[in-house]
Amino acid sequence: MKDKIWLSPPHLSGKEKEFIEDAFEKNWVTSMGENINEFEKGLQEFLKDDIDVCVLNSATSAIHLSLIMLGVSFNDEVITSAFSFIASANPIAYCGATPIFIDSEKSTWNMCPAALEVAVKDRTSKGKKPKAIIVVHLYGMPAKMDEILKIAEEYDIPVIEDAAEALGSAYKGKACGTFGRFGILSFNGNKIITTSGGGALVCHTQEDKDKAVFLSTQARDNAPHYQHSHIGYNYRMSNIVAGIGRGQMEVLNDRVEARRKMHGFYIELFNDIEGVEVFSEPSGDYFSNHWLSAIIVNPEITGKTREDLRLAFLEDNIESRPLWKPMHLQPVFVDAPYYGTNIAEKLFDNGLCLPSGSNLSDEDRSRIRSVIKKCFFIN
Ligand SMILES: *Cc1c(COP(=O)(O)O)cnc(C)c1O
Predict the structure, then answer these.
(1) SS3 (DSSP) at 36
(2) Phi and psi of 227, rounded to 5°?
């Protein structure tokens, strides 16, 4: 059996262990310490803008915390993208609120501003003005932020940016994760940088950051004994895990460059294959980190389906994966309202994510190339 080529494996810099060892030496084996402070500072400097970052144990926790900080509770409604990983929607359910799913538009695959406006008007007319909009930048592609923020402002609804897949992406030169009232980042093992598991909440005021730290560390009031007047959570990142993050920050720019190069490799490869479209930025306003490279296969032109290609990869021990199955089609969310014209559904039917790791070798790429060429009968 040939070595497995993964869809998006971790890629360490080698510096991570030094920061972890430093924490051990100084005995900061806890949820405070230099690694946490420096990782947060590194993210703030990377994202620029006037922001404060609170690192947490996952992006899922970060989304949950942002909803809590916006006062989302039982029987509220929160809008989010139908086309995403389930972690964008689950925290809405944790609050006892209902997710309202919005379809994609064709150019970015992200939240369709037209469908968003229809949904906001319709929910509001039913006496249920949405409490928040969670907009996702899928596969690193920035959403149509100008249009979405305009609607959010007009109806005075706070925006949470799920930038879990989009660290290093930008819209009109501004970093993804810094547009909304809150931004969310993920350092899960498959993301563009990893801490093995972890996330961050991007805040715009010191007050919000302080509140996020307070709520994520069990909401302890200022007293010598344990005193509590709020429900708290155990969501803070550990100082050991933050050491991995510090080591990863040193190579973040390289990782973005390498993922974008993988995208370039696929653009060139599929240039010769009619009926396959590589997901790309619609214009110069969009800068994607190309966390995952993805394609849409037109079976009528190619005579092949995305499943044919997935199975051909599998045969060669190469991992690929269908695009996200839309949330309104998930059994767990069948009862949730949905607004759109089934664009995400068609993307799911015909789309495939391709191996996109920043540490693929030339040999790996040549294996990938052979499978693709064989599948589509190209010499
Ligand atoms: C990975 C991911 C999350 C969740 O991140 P975790 O850190 O694993 O909790 C949320 N939203 C999107 C779009 C993701 O891809």
Answers:
(1) helix
(2) -125, 135
Give domain status of residue 162, yes or no. yes
> Is 7 a domain residue?
no
Is 310 a member of any domain?
yes
- Helix, coil or strand: residue 297: strand
127 Cβ contact partners less than 8 Å away, ≥ 6 residues apart: none
Testing ligand 1's pocket by substitution, the residue of 94, 186, 235 carrying the most ligand atoms inside 8 A of its CB is 186
- Cα of 201 vs centre of ligand 1, distance in Å, is 12
Q: What is the CA radius of gyration of the chain?
A: 21
CATH code, domain carrying 114: 3.40.640.10
Residue 165, ligand 1, Cβ within 6 A: yes
Looking at the structure, do residues 240 and 142 belong to the same domain, yes or no?
yes
Domain residues for the domain of 356 are 253-375
Does residue 164's CB lie within 6 angstroms of at least one atom of ligand 1?
Answer: yes
Distance 60 CA to ligand 1 centre (A): 6
pTM score, whole prediction: 0.97
Q: Is the CB of 176 under 6 A from ligand 1?
A: no
Domain boundary among 190, 224, 251: 251
Is 216 inside a domain boundary? yes
55 touches ligand 1 (CB under 6 Å): no
Q: How far is the CA of 154 from the centre of ligand 1 (A)?
A: 29
Residue 70 beta carbon below 6 angstroms from any ligand 1 atom: no
Place of tokens 């989010």: 80
Count how many domains the chain has: 2
Residue 161 CB–ligand 1 contact under 6 Å = no
Q: Please give the pLDDT value at position 379.
A: 57
Check if 199 has its Cβ closer than 6 Å to any atom of ligand 1.
yes
Quick check: CB of 87 below 6 Å from ligand 1?
Answer: yes
Which pLDDT value is given to residue 282? 98
Which pLDDT tens digit goes with each residue over 244-288? 999 999 999 999 999 999 999 999 999 989 999 999 999 999 999
Q: Is the CB of 60 under 6 A from ligand 1?
A: yes
- Both 50 and 102 in one domain: the answer is yes
With the CA atoms of 81, 87, 138 and 15 taken in that order, what torsion angle do they form, in degrees rounded to the nearest 10?
160
The CA-based diameter of the chain, rounded to the nearest angstrom, is 74
In this prediction, the residues of the chain whose per-residue pLDDT falls under 70 are 379
Domain boundary among 233, 251, 269: 251
Give the Cα separation of 29 and 39 in Å (integer).
15
